[in-house]
Amino acid sequence: MENKYNPDIHHRRSIRLKHYDYTQTGAYFVTVCTWQKECLFGDVVDGETRLNEYGNVVVDCWNKIPSHFQYVGLDAFIVMPNHVHVIIVMDNCRGKACLAPTWERGQFGKPITGSLPTIVGSFKSAVTKQINTIRNTPGTPLWQRNYYEHVIRNDDELQRIREYIINNPLQWADDEINPANMW
Question: Is the pLDDT of residue 96 over 60?
Fold first, then answer.
């Protein structure tokens, strides 16, 4: 069997904004794709996502994020056959002064409590563990290594992204991540 994942490859550049504080209060749009864009979570039928058992695991793990990260709120969310779009809302000010910027507090490559990468990593890990347990495939990659993130800068942008997420199943036939469109 071909080795799909090589942990010895460390030539990746970060897609994160240099010196941006990813613990900062705000809304973040995140897209996470499955490993090799495999359709694992269900199907889109007549413009609606029909989740399977694995898709339901994704929803369950998403809904549990606030119980693990006290200052995180959930906004728009959709599970597609091979990816997930979410809006994560963070309020790390806790009614007081905000936490120090991550670039002052953290070291490169180390998780920072309450940061967007830590939240996304935790979500991906929980989903992977549960689905691999169901499939009896321990250690098998479920997600692509990285993810897309975008800092939402204003209310108009937030509304546009919410609409994009809600309407994503209607656009599935034309989606570049749809395996039918990859060849």
Answer: no
pLDDT (0 to 100) of residue 94: 53
More confident residue, 183 or 1: 183
**3-class state of residue 125 by DSSP:** helix
Torsion of CA 176, 180, 181, 182, to 10 degrees: 90
To the nearest whole number, what is the mean pLDDT of the chain? 84
- What average pLDDT does range 76-88 have in this prediction? 97
| CB contact at 8 A, 72 and 119 | yes
Q: In what order do the strands lie in the sheet with 83-90?
A: 72-79, 83-90, 26-33, 148-152
Write the CA distances from 163 to 39, 168, 171, integer angstroms: 23, 8, 12
Using DSSP, state whether 100 is helix, strand or coil.
coil
Contacting residues for 10 by C-beta, under 8 A, at least 6 apart: none
Query: Dihedral sign, CA of 19, 85, 69, 134?
Result: negative
Beta bridge partners of 73: 89
- Enumerate domains of the chain plus CATH numbers: 26-167 (3.30.70.1290)
